[in-house]
Design a protein that fits this description.
Chain B is of the alpha/beta class. In chain B, 27% of the residues lie in helices and 22% in strands. Helices cover 52% and strands 0% of the residues of chain C. In chain C, 43% of the residues are buried. Classes of the chains: A alpha/beta, B alpha/beta, C mainly alpha, D alpha/beta.
């Protein structure tokens, strides 16, 4: 199956490490990725606050480009950024269930000779890795099982809500299953899908910080060595503001926050460099050792 | 096509009903009456406010006599509602009731349309259809069949128990079939009952033993209905008797075998205590179980698993009642009526993960708490949590799996009241702080609101708001080690976090998981939620669309004990009416073969689902056994030579209805005869 | 009614300091906008707005409700009832972080997040929102940048934001900015798509059409 | 809430006429339920009650079309729910056959419909009828009787010609 890759704006700046690790992991697993040519911003949440139809049109252009670029029309468009993933999925969903919206959007696309059939399938790398590629195959590829590493899997909001595309909205498990497949252990916690503050950390910081804080403290309280995310904004919020939270609210938070693909890369034996680990503010020290002879890889 | 010559002998009376404003407000009844007066054969055409009223019916009767009418057409509500009424009126007037035809202009017209002219046109079309139809009506004699006086009740909860006793006390023989090893159902598991707080066991167990000892009741527990055949008054039911591995007539319920089982302690989750305690492979559900017979569970008994058990139970039984070789038996019985009281199941709280049931040990379902506070329960009535602590603060969450489009959208009607009851009992047992989280407090019932008042005075805390989540996420030290409730106190308009030790989920009532299968078995319908469908929501609440089969209790919809018992009584009364009438009049809509026309081609033989059609090979003709025919008319439609006719639904009748509707009859504009296939 | 300034956001529950004033509160029918509910509900799935049973699940699942002047439940009630002024001036709609928790748990399956979007749009269109509140400003800045370049460059987006709302804040953020820059997690190179005019044409087409519809 | 389809007044105020055969136990009851629940819908369907969809003779349908129906709707119990065990299957088999026949006669498939509607599906009665009326409105009148008349005329004309010829010959 051919996969198209939609980086989205964040993966070109704050989420650089996410892009690097996604590409590295897919390469290591020999899953071909092809970047969507001349993709544009998905519109994120802000755009919907100004003009709904324009927002749909903006996102639809990407879906249309994908349709063209993948010869057979049935495109699998991978969007690692949670916001992009949701906006594209949402657009796809509304365009199919509301013919009049689709009509409006297509009328707009027609002006530049584009037309969207509605065949693009928006996917999240987590979905692709766990469900298309498969955990068994991943386990087989693990070179450095993450023995004894306690991971807090943080899904955030927009990958699992509001659409139940590949996991439960209220209590998702795919990232946990993935981490276990890499030999790590995961913590049971109720906050795995609670909002990290999103863009509020940039606007109404007080509010934003407190949301991130709740997650970080609870993860630490449950003795997690590291938190992994599948969203650049979550990663940014949870990692970059730890000092500020400690300063402002007198906490003692110190927990590495990485992308799930980075953790995966480590287990697959990729170098920290190619996974962009060096870009993290507090670098996780992975106490990983190559398995002794005869010892099963998956602990 | 009615032969216009007939007009001389056909004298039709047409009556259109206003039904107050129900019809008259949307259909111009006057115009319809005037129009119908112009149709062939119509002698009388009147409109009246309420045709179903006595004056209305008398009008018909007098007209029949004075105008010597020989056909009656009434345009009013649905025939399913009043056909019988008007047939009787016709008969009282001295006519054969089957000369009557009904036109549905309420359910099918006035109630579903707004455009008055369109509605009036439609009413005219339908009336015309009926007028043309009655030309072909013939005098018929209803088929009468005797009603078997024996009855069957399926389901041994409080509904089944009450229905069975009512019938039995009226001197009828009753078979009570229960799938569990004991009767009693959910009520037997409850501790106290609202609003009077009398103990469930105290009022239920006497009735249970009455059932056991009643000479007219045959009690079959651990049994299931597997097949139902026949028709109203004459059903034949097959019942599977599952093996108990105990010879019922020998066992006296001394429980020695349980005592001596090689398992010293219980090892498997106890169904009756909803898994809060453990039982042995040989067990009795609860002390007052009826009948007092032990059961051996083959899935857990060592003898069944390995065949290498010391069989200490067998040694223990001095009456040799234990029989590992026992096999399931099938009994076939004939009954005239059947009452279904198969009850409900509680909502599985795991379906709403945000309440943490199954994840946090101290989250309980209401049913579990009923056992927990029960003196004969797993803890002897002591409220000790799964983690061994005693709660100092308890949250009761209403509407779990009710009023939620993501799970069950209906209100379960009982949860508010039983939550109040549990609040009272838990406070009594623990002196803990008790919170009730509700969306709307629904206490509609005799002295229910008073009970709510009482609770308010017992300073139970009431917070109006649907709880969003139960977590062990401590936001501050005071919440450490607690279950934290997150809810908006909608009366204050503020979101609150409330730490508690114990959470009780007031789970809703839903249809039994096998309701659909049961429904098919007894040939009745289910409403959209999956509960059994009553014949009429108001006027026939315990009847079904299959004559002789009645429903009562929570299988028809969520219900508390008083309503259930009332409905069970009603169902029994309906059954008695049928039984005591001795015989039942069947709609004479059976099919018959016009011998001369039959070519003996055998097409019909294979089609009849009741094998009511046989072939006289000597005469080379098909023949229909009227007693077996149920009147579906499938054979009529299939007969290539048109030799089979169905009473009340003859081809001519339906063709003339089509004529009438499309206005191509003799009254029609284009003479109609144009292109009739016949 | 006055909009609380953003700087006032406090987590303390101490109310002793706040000045008490006697205010006459009563709502006359003619002060309400009775078509407001329908207007807002006109987006896809919006009609469900009217089936709200006021259970408060949305407020309780909402991670931000404790900062809102009206809880989401109240917003629904007031929107239905036509409290246009109050709602469009409220902070609540801007605090919604689009986490969709309310939507997935709502027993009536009301698309609350989308209601909030609709309210935001209405507020911006009719210029109601609190002026120095960064969120709508951010939204607009984002909107313009994307309309111009087809992509957004976070660095410039933020600079832009702080200039418009609270320039002083920029210095506070500078440290973090440098750190990001240093870790190669922020670029000052504005990101653009190639066929910018293609995109503009599309978006203008939408505008034109909607303009046509409105007039 | 879906409301009564409000039809634009069509040319020469033609209104689709639909003849509906509903089985007594499921669909007719559902129609009653629709009534009791006041579910407004298009007033174009005329219901004929039969005990079972299995009773519906293909001739009824042909007759209805021949006499000017623009559409025919048959309603029965869901598969497995038939009050008479399998009457609805019999109906299904027949109507499949008839359907292909009608299409070959140039009667569009939207004009002829077999629907399973259980006693509890009042809402479905409304949607099915509205939907069918909408589709037939698109198709326009079927008007078989008129066509028949035209054909008759043509036949007469033909005969006359033939006669004419004969006379000519005789003369």
């Amino acid at each position: 199956m051919k996969y198209l890759y939609y980086p989205g704006c964040s993966l070109h700046s704050t989420g650089k490490a996410y892009e690097e690790s996604v590409l590295a992991v897919f390469k290591a697993l020999e899953i071909p990725l092809e970047e969507l040519e001349d993709w544009n911003c998905c519109g994120a949440t802000s755009y919907f606050s100004i003009d709904e139809t324009e927002a749909f049109a903006l996102a639809a252009r990407n879906l249309e480009l994908a349709e063209n670029q993948s010869g057979n029309g049935h495109a699998n468009l991978i969007a690692p950024c949670a916001a992009c993933y949701l906006v594209l999925t949402k657009t796809q969903h509304y365009l199919t269930s509301y013919p009049d919206i689709k009509q409006k959007v297509n009328d707009a696309l027609d002006t530049v000779g584009l037309h969207y059939e509605g065949k693009t399938n928006v996917r999240h790398p987590l979905d692709v890795l766990v469900n298309d590629y498969g955990l068994d195959k991943i386990t087989k590829r693990v070179k450095k099982p993450l023995k004894g590493l306690r991971v807090a899997c943080y899904y955030g909001c927009q990958v699992v809500r509001p659409f139940k595309v590949f996991d439960d909205s209220l209590y998702p498990t795919s990232m946990d299953r993935l981490a276990k497949a890499l030999g790590a252990e995961t913590i049971e916690w109720p906050l795995k899908t609670r909002c990290c503050g999103g863009s509020l950390t940039g606007t109404i910081q007080e509010a934003g910080l407190r949301l991130s804080r709740a997650l970080l403290i609870d993860a630490q309280r449950r003795k997690a060595d590291i938190m992994i995310t599948c969203c650049p904004l979550c990663q940014h919020n949870l990692e970059c503001y730890q000092d500020r939270i400690n300063r402002k609210l007198g906490d003692h938070i110190h927990i590495p926050v990485a992308y799930f693909t980075q953790l995966m890369g480590i287990a697959l034996g990729l170098s920290e460099k190619e996974l962009g680990i060096h870009r993290l503010f507090n670098r996780p020290r992975f106490a990983v050792t190559a398995p002794k002879k005869g010892e099963p890889v998956h602990a | 096509m009615p032969d216009v010559k007939l007009n001389g002998s056909i004298r039709i009376g047409f009556y259109i009903c206003h039904c107050g404003h129900n019809i008259a407000s949307t259909v111009d009844v006057d115009a319809v009456a005037q129009y119908v007066a112009t149709l062939p054969g119509v002698i009388v055409s009147r409109d009246y406010k309420y045709m179903c009223s006595d004056p209305g019916q008398e009008m018909i009767q007098t007209d029949i006599k004075e105008q010597n009418l020989n056909r009656i057409v009434v345009a009013s509500c649905s025939p399913l509602l009043h056909e019988h009424t008007f047939r009787t009126a016709t008969e009282k007037g001295g006519l054969n009731p089957y000369y009557f035809q009904m036109v549905n202009i309420r359910e099918n017209v006035s109630w579903v349309h707004t455009d008055k002219s369109a509605a009036t046109t439609k009413a005219k079309d339908l009336a015309r259809a009926a007028i043309l139809r009655v030309f072909h009506h013939r005098s018929l004699e209803p088929k009468r069949v005797p009603v078997n006086p024996d009855a069957m009740v399926v389901g041994g909860g409080i509904a089944g128990i009450h229905a069975a006793l009512t019938l039995a006390n009226a001197g009828k023989k009753v078979y009570l079939v229960e799938r569990e090893p004991t009767i009693g159902g959910h009520m037997a598991m409850f501790d106290k009952t609202f609003p009077t707080l009398d103990c469930a066991a105290c009022i239920l167990t006497p009735k249970m033993s009455q059932v056991k000892n009643h000479p007219n009741i045959t009690l079959w527990t651990y049994s299931e209905v597997t097949n139902v055949e026949g028709y109203v008054g004459n059903y034949s039911v097959t019942v599977k008797r599952k093996p108990r591995y105990i010879i019922e007539d020998l066992c006296v319920g001394c429980l020695e075998c349980i005592e001596k089982c090689i398992y010293k302690e219980g090892k498997y989750p106890d169904e009756f205590n909803v898994g809060l305690s453990k039982r042995k492979p040989v067990y009795i559900p609860f002390p007052q179980a009826t009948p007092q017979l032990v059961v051996i569970d083959p899935d857990t008994c060592i003898e069944f698993k390995s065949g290498k058990c010391k069989k200490t139970c067998v040694e223990a039984c001095d009456r040799d009642a234990i029989d590992f070789k026992q096999e399931e038996r099938f009994e076939e019985v004939k009954v005239g009526t059947i009452i279904l009281t198969t009850g409900f199941q509680t909502f599985d709280a795991r379906r709403v993960p945000y309440y943490g049931y199954g994840k946090y040990p101290n989250v309980y379902t209401s049913l579990e708490v009923e056992r927990l506070v029960n003196a004969s329960g797993p803890t002897g009535g002591d409220v000790i949590l799964r983690d061994g602590r005693r709660p100092t603060s308890i949250a009761i969450i209403h509407c779990v799996g009710s009023r939620d489009k993501n799970t069950n959208r209906w209100c379960s009607r009982t949860c508010c009241m039983y939550s109040l009851k549990l609040a009272h009992l838990l406070k009594e047992h623990t002196e803990a702080e008790v919170y009730n989280f509700y969306i709307d407090m629904r206490t509609p019932g005799k002295s229910y609101e008073e009970f709510y008042d009482k609770l308010l005075d017992e300073n139970v805390r009431f917070i109006r708001g649907r709880v969003a989540e139960v977590t062990d996420w401590a936001d501050r030290p005071s919440e450490e080690g607690k279950l934290v409730i997150r809810v908006e106190d909608t009366m204050v308009g503020v979101v609150r976090r409330i730490p508690v030790d114990m959470v009780v989920l007031a789970v809703g009532m839903e249809p039994q998981s096998d309701a659909q299968a049961v429904r098919k078995l007894f040939n009745i319908s289910c409403s959209t939620e999956g509960f059994f469908l009553e014949r009429h929501p108001k006027l026939a609440p315990v009847d079904t669309f299959t004559d002789g089969i009645y429903i009562a209790g929570a299988c028809q919809g969520p219900k508390d004990i008083p309503d259930t018992v009332a409905q069970a009584g009603a169902a029994a009364a309906q059954a008695l009416t049928l039984i005591d009438s001795g015989e039942i009049e069947l709609e004479p809509n059976t099919a018959f073969v016009v011998q001369d026309a039959c070519s003996g081609c055998r097409t019909c033989l294979t089609i009849c689902p009741y094998s009511a059609i046989s072939r006289d090979d000597a005469k080379q003709k098909a023949y229909i056994n009227e007693a077996l025919c149920k009147g579906c008319g499938t054979c009529v439609a299939a007969c290539p030579s048109g030799a089979i006719k169905q009473n009340l639904f003859e081809d001519e009748m339906i063709f003339s209805e089509i004529d009438g509707i499309l206005n191509t009859g003799p009254a029609g504009t284009n003479g109609g005869v144009a292109c009739s296939p016949k | 009614m006055t909009t609380p300034m953003v700087e006032q956001v406090k987590s303390s529950t101490n109310h002793r300091t706040t000045k008490k004033a006697i205010v006459r509160r009563i709502k006359y029918e003619e002060e309400l906008d009775h078509s407001f509910g329908e207007e807002i509900a006109s987006f896809a799935y919006g009609e469900k707005l009217f089936s709200c049973i006021q259970c408060g699940t949305c407020s309780a699942t909402c991670p931000l409700s404790h900062y809102m002047d009206y809880t989401p439940r109240k917003v629904i009630a007031m929107t239905r009832a036509g409290f246009k002024e109050e709602i469009l001036n409220s902070l609540t709609i801007w605090l919604c972080a689009s986490c969709y928790s309310c939507l997935v748990q709502c027993p009536q399956q009301i698309h609350i997040t989308d209601v909030m979007y609709a309210l935001k749009r209405e507020a911006i269109a009719s210029g109601y929102y609190p002026r120095r509140l960064p969120i709508p400003v951010l939204a607009k800045a984002f909107f313009n940048q994307v309309r111009k370049n087809g992509r957004n460059t976070e660095s410039w987006l933020l600079v832009n934001l702080y200039l418009r709302t609270n320039p002083f804040k920029m210095f506070k953020e500078a440290v973090l900015g440098m750190k990001l820059l240093f870790h190669g997690r922020m670029s000052l190179m504005p990101d653009r798509i190639k066929r910018r005019n293609e995109l503009t044409t599309i978006l203008n087409a939408v505008k034109a059409r909607e303009g046509a519809v409105r007039s | 809430m879906q409301s009564e389809v409000n039809h634009p007044v069509p040319v020469n105020d033609w209104e689709p006429k639909i003849v509906a055969f509903f089985c007594n136990w499921c669909t007719y009851t559902a129609a009653d339920l629709a009534g009791v629940s006041r579910l407004k819908h298009a007033p174009n369907a005329r219901i004929i009650r039969v005990m079972c969809s299995g009773r519906v003779d293909p001739q009824f349908i042909l007759d209805a079309f021949a006499k000017g129906a623009d559409g025919v709707l048959i309603g029965g119990c869901h598969p497995g729910d038939c009050h008479y065990m399998e009457g609805n299957f019999k109906a299904l088999r027949r109507m499949r056959l008839l359907g292909t026949m009608l299409r070959s006669m140039g009667i569009e498939s939207d004009r002829f419909r077999l629907e399973w509607i259980s006693a509890s599906e009042g809402e479905r009665v409304r949607t099915v009828i509205n939907d069918m009326v909408g589709k037939i409105r698109m198709l326009g009148p079927l008007g078989l009787p008129r066509r028949f008349e035209e054909w008759d005329k043509e036949m007469e004309a033909l005969e006359e010609q033939v006669h004419g010829k004969e006379e000519a010959v005789n003369a």
